[in-house]
Amino acid sequence: MKKRLANLLAVKSIVTIVLTCVFAYLTCTGGVTAEQFLTVFTVVIAFYFGTQAEKRQQAAVSESDTQQTDQAA
């Protein structure tokens, strides 16, 4: 639970949340169009979740390599 909270407070997460809030506010006040908001929001969210998925995949590969090394010994 503490690790999840620490990850949530990572700089990347904070930037993603702040950017989302700012663009949502600008869209509601007419500062940007809904189309502009959707474009920026899609890019940011895709990047955020893409890097999270890559981290999980690297961790799984690393764990698999460790298990194979332990079995070979």
Automatic annotation (TrEMBL):
Transmembrane segments: 34-51
Keywords of the record: Membrane, Transmembrane, Transmembrane helix
Superkingdom of origin organism: Bacteria
Record-given protein name: Holin
Naturally occurring in which organism (per UniProt): Oscillibacter valericigenes
Taxonomic lineage: Bacteria, Bacillati, Bacillota, Clostridia, Eubacteriales
